Amino acid sequence: MYKNLIAGEWREGTGTRVNLSPSDTADQVGLYTQASAQDTLAAIESAEQAQPIWAARSLQQRADALDFIGSEILARREELGILLAREEGKVLVEAIAEVTRAGQVFKFFAGEVLRIQGEHMASVRPGIEIDILRQPVGVVAIITPWNFPIAIPAWKIAPALAYGNSVVFKPADLVPGSAWALSEIISRAGLPDGTFNLLMGRGGVVGQAMVESPRVKAISFTGSAETGRNLLQTASARFAKLQLEMGGKNPLVIMNDADLAQAIECAVQGSYFSTGQRCTASSRFIVEKGIYRRFVEGVQERLESLRVGHALHADSQIGPVADQAQYEQNLNYVSIGQAEGAVLATGGQPLKRDTHGYFMSPALFIDTAADMRIAQEEIFGPIACAIPADNYEHALQLANGTPFGLSAGICTTSLKYATHFKQHVQSGMVMVNTPTAGVDYHVPFGGTKGSSYGPREQGRYAAEFFTTVKTAYTHV
Question: What protein family does this chain belong to (predicted)?
Fold first, then answer.
């Protein structure tokens, strides 16, 4: 039984979740306890008590703690990668890469601890000096999704701790194993008891208690748009600080002048790897008509050559869907697309393998209308659609034609188109001749419109959320 971490102690909750592998439902990853609302409130209380103690630690002590965490993650990347692949379904090479990213994030913020900045300014009034200080927010609730079970927790927890906050952390109920392993490493990093707390359990129980508690001063959430909107309504009413990442319906524009082979690779890598379960995945291919047929034929050929299989098998390129509910949702969207009149060029079928898992062939719809549900709603699976565009202006209009705005890409050899697209596409991140999925950890992450709310994540911009600004005046 893997337990919750509350006030420096491993505590059993009120229920148990069986963690099963989506590659092989006979493979039990572990038994994980479930926290109650009372457990959550106890963790929040301990975090409130520990936060000023942690914030009072020297910069070097905080930096050393984060460096310890990052170093152990990197030293154990293969072991942790196997665990991640088993419970989430990423193929092993992707899982190890995700673990590596988590270690790098902690290392980065170990350095950022020593670069916390303020300002000293002259006043407009004589004899007055001004100091602008960055201080911790306080108790931070962190709620993470199942698709990146160690990287996303890392890029939220690391800056929260770096800037002197305490943390109550609720991972996705589907993937507690990677979160528990990360938390166990953090528990040995020398933090004061209660500075970091792990609460595994249902969002309606644990997450709700976090969102409603007046002791929680800030909430960083990544998940569905519906859950994000509900969280916003509840937490904003008590003036909590919010950072919400809520998905995307990301376009990849292919111009007539694009390098065709490069464009096909950008499309396949960005849309289908990690089983399409990335909020930055490009699920809409908006293709200028002069290259349309050659592009969709090339993508179809590439998809039909991909090997879908067990996440731990060396020859697998795409793993299973994360669980039965997501699997059924994906297949339902395939039916929706066909009913709407889009042409299913390839894929979208259940696959049988040696083990019982949630395997499906990557799907490509072609001749899709921009207002179809499969072109407007986030599916979160290995399904993409191709939409023909008359010209660049039409392609840009189509790219901006959804409620989301997280990541967008364009494949072109034209500096004119690339420059205009970077400036005018409605998204928080823009990729030119590279997949829409795949970001660096030292620069800001986030979107516009319905994709994001609040300050950016990652890099030095993380300070905007995890600190509060104080302006101090001194008469000298």
Answer: Belongs to the aldehyde dehydrogenase family.
Together in a domain, 378 and 366: yes
| DSSP three-state, residue 460 | helix
Q: pTM for this structure?
A: 0.97
Residue found under tokens 């509350």: 6
Q: What is the pLDDT of residues 58-92, one digit of tens each?
A: 999 999 999 999 999 999 999 999 999 999 999 99
Which residue, among 67, 220, 92, 249, has the nearest Cα to 152 in the 3D structure?
220
Question: How many whole angstroms separate alpha carbon 116 and alpha carbon 134?
Answer: 8
Whether residue 403 sits in one domain with residue 369 = yes
Each residue of 398-423: pLDDT tens digit? 999 999 999 999 999 999 999 999 99
Q: What are phi and psi of 203, to 5 degrees?
A: -60, -35
Region 208-229: mean pLDDT is 96
Tell me: do 276 and 196 sit in the same domain: no
Residues 158-168 pLDDT 10s: 999 999 999 99
In a domain, 437, yes or no: no
Range of the domain at 165: 4-246+442-475
Q: Report the CATH number at residue 102.
A: 3.40.605.10
Active site residues: 245
Among the listed residues 263, 248, 264, 262, the one whose alpha carbon sits nearest the alpha carbon of residue 400: 248
387 φ/ψ angles, rounded to the nearest 5 degrees: -125, 125
Q: How far apart are CA 104 and CA 67, in angstroms?
A: 9
Helices and strands (DSSP H and E) totals, the chain: 15, 20
| Residue 14 token pair | 């009120």
Backbone angles phi, psi at 167, to 5 degrees: -130, 135
DSSP H or E stretch at residue 341: none
